[in-house]
UniProtKB/TrEMBL annotation:
This is 2-dehydropantoate 2-reductase. Residues 180-321 form the Opine dehydrogenase domain. Keywords: Pantothenate biosynthesis. It catalyses: (R)-pantoate + NADP(+) = 2-dehydropantoate + NADPH + H(+).
Length: 354
């Protein structure tokens, strides 16, 4: 297939390498800068779980990326989803499939409804997280650390779920399971409930750019706060008739942990892996992305469904206090999605569109 990838960070490069190695024709576009420029003159070199050297074309514009593509992949941080989608929308054509990797703040629903409003009939597949984990190691180099062994995917419209599943499996392998809808894909992500408290309670380490292993500093106290946020996330999902697995079950599924409590899981992971290192930049995505597009969005959903979320609200307020930023104002999807004032029934009707 002809694949267009919006995003030239680690996930964009990893996806490009994986798909080009699989025989697909891949183009990549850098939305904010020309960070994929090296690929114009050099092959993309991949190490890690995929050892390959592949040719990837560079698209100069969003229009060039979309033109003739069978599948498009949005592979940018969640705080860039709306801007990238707005750039792609004028050029999308009916029949194309767009994979959102990974969906947050119902960004898949935003893209789908905006395309429909333009009379464009696309299929949107939303992944709960990325199919691959990776880091760019150079201008034309990427290291792929893992490929997920199981990953949920939701589809808009629901009537094309089977076709979307066939597409993602043909691209990344038979590791995908269907999610109920894109709201489930949004709520299944445990990163916001874990990253917010972890960053805030280790903030001086981040400010001092210390080398701190994340799981070692997910102490029993920090774990207890994370568990409270996770309980509110699960209650929120239940209010919409959805069931999402706990953060403990997530770690067991992702990393094969056997401990029962989150604090013990963190100790187990530290003993096994020793890392990964925690962030050392005060602009870390642990707050800049996960608070506005995870926790703030959850609060908006909570208000919609009448679910009290005091622990989540406390972490959001603390994050704003510590950083001096208004994270509620930084979410650019709540307003256009008309979450405020919506009813659970109305929102479910939209995410279950056929």
């Amino acid at each position: 297939m002809k694949i267009g990838i919006a995003g030239s960070g680690g996930i964009g490069y990893a996806s490009a390498a994986w798909l080009a190695h699989g025989g697909h024709e891949v183009r990549i576009w850098s939305p904010r800068n020309d960070s994929a420029a090296a690929l114009r003159d050099a092959p993309l070199q991949c190490e890690g779980v995929l050892q390959a050297q592949v040719t990837v074309r560079v698209a100069p514009t969003a229009a060039a990326l979309v033109d003739g593509a069978d599948v498009l992949i949005v592979a940018v941080p969640v705080n860039g989803h709306k801007a990238v989608m707005d750039a792609l929308l004028p050029h999308l054509a009916s029949g194309q499939t767009v994979i959102v990797s990974s969906v947050a703040s119902l960004s898949a629903l935003y893209l789908f409804e905006q395309a429909r409003a333009r009379g464009v009939d696309i299929t949107v597949a939303g992944m709960g997280t990325t199919a691959l984990t990776a880091r760019r190691s150079g201008p034309a180099q990427v290291k792929v650390m893992t490929r997920r062994t199981e990953l949920g995917v939701s589809t808009l419209p629901l009537s094309r779920a089977d076709a979307a599943m066939e597409t993602v499996r043909s691209l990344f392998g038979d590791v995908f399971v269907p999610e109920a809808n894109c709201l489930a894909s949004t709520l299944v992500n445990i990163n916001p409930v874990a990253h917010g408290p972890l960053a805030l309670f280790n903030w001086t380490r981040i400010e001092r750019a210390e080398n701190w292993p994340q799981y070692h500093y997910m102490t029993p106290t920090v774990a207890r706060v994370i568990e409270q946020l996770d309980a509110e996330r699960k209650a929120l999902a239940a209010a919409f008739g959805l069931q999402v697995r706990s953060i403990e079950a997530h770690f067991a599924k992702s990393f094969g942990t056997t401990s029962a409590t989150l604090a013990d899981i963190a100790a187990e992971l530290h003993a096994k892996r020793g890392g990964p290192p925690g962030p050392t930049d005060t602009g870390t995505r642990f707050l800049a992305e996960d608070v506005p597009f995870g926790l703030v969005f959850n609060l908006a959903l909570g208000a919609c469904a009448g679910v009290a979320m005091p622990a989540t609200r406390s972490i959001v307020e603390m994050a704003c206090l510590v950083t001096g930023r208004d994270y509620a104002a930084e979410n650019d999807l709540v307003a256009p999605l008309r979450i405020d004032g919506a009813t659970p029934q109305a929102l479910l009707a939209r995410v279950n569109a056929r």
